[in-house]
Automatic annotation (TrEMBL):
It comes from the Bacteria. One of its GO terms (cellular component) is protein-DNA complex. GO terms for molecular function: phosphorelay response regulator activity; transcription cis-regulatory region binding. It comes from Nonomuraea endophytica. Keywords: DNA-binding, Phosphoprotein, Transcription, Transcription regulation, Two-component regulatory system. The modification 4-aspartylphosphate is found at residue 51. This is DNA-binding response OmpR family regulator.
Length: 220
């Protein structure tokens, strides 16, 4: 899943970028409101971590614009503003959650997972046939056999498992599993899918649909 961190404290940005990437997320960053607004117009995000006090604007306005666009992206406001009226306003402006600084990183991760579970029926475990992903523990198995995947292999498989039987284009995978620094003309998606297939050791589980993309085969 691809996240946007909107935050002007660069030390915190660096810590979030590293921690979230280790947890398997693709992470883009905006240090002020105008850059955040531009990136939200250009890219597709699954979740935004949004500070309120930003150069060039404020998080409330950014949140309103996200909701006006109707893209369904999840929003967690992450801010030092801990007054009750700020928390109430944040939720009323369209935030899905509100986390006060300073916070413990494991709690932030749990809140991110909880919001993203809304797109998978509220469960932290995805199962398609004998494939199983525990998103809370980032554990993957096939027929009871544990699989050791790279973060990108995990991201591709997770994305396909949320859409079994549907064709997913390389562009869509690049948009959701890689960050803004990915080269759109690279063959990294094809290589990652190829490596994932070898680790699955199951021919045809991930099908190539010529000129369209990839599809995770649904159980018969």
């Amino acid at each position: 899943m691809r996240l946007l961190v909107v935050e002007d404290e660069e030390d915190l940005v660096d810590a979030l970028r590293v921690g979230l990437a280790r947890a398997g997320y693709a992470v883009d960053v905006a240090l002020d409101a105008p850059v955040a607004q531009e990136k939200l117009q250009v890219n597709t995000y699954d979740l935004v971590l949004l500070d309120l006090n930003l150069p060039g604007g404020d998080g409330f306005q950014v949140c309103r614009e996200i909701r006006a666009a109707g893209k369904g992206v999840r929003v967690i406001m992450v801010t030092a503003r801990d007054r009750l009226d700020d928390r109430v306003r944040g939720l009323d402006e369209g935030a899905d959650d509100y986390l006060v600084k300073p916070f413990a990183f494991p709690e932030l991760l749990a809140r991110v997972r909880a919001l993203l579970r809304r797109d998978t029926g509220g469960t932290s475990v995805l199962e398609v046939g004998q494939l199983r992903i525990d998103t809370a523990r980032m554990e993957v198995s096939l027929g009871g056999r544990a699989l050791a995947l790279t973060p990108k292999e995990y991201g591709v498989l997770h994305y396909l498992m949320t859409r079994p039987g549907h064709v997913v284009s390389s562009e869509e995978l690049l948009e959701h599993v890689w960050d803004e620094h990915a080269d759109p003309f690279t063959n990294t998606v094809r290589v990652t899918v190829g490596n994932l297939r070898r680790k699955l050791q199951e021919d045809g589980l991930i099908e190539t649909v010529i000129s369209r993309g990839y599809r995770l085969k649904e159980p018969a």
